[in-house]
Amino acid sequence: MLKNWVILFSVLLRGCATVKQSCGVFERGSMNYRLCRAENGSKIYQFRYAMELYVIGDVDEARKWLIKASKDDVSYNKQDIDPNGLMSGKNISVTSSKTLEKGDEAAAYMLAKFYFEGLGVKADKKSAEYYRTSARNTVVEIEELSDRFRIHIKTKMAILRNGADENELYELYSFRISK
Question: Which CATH class is domain 23-178?
Answer without folding.
Answer: mainly alpha
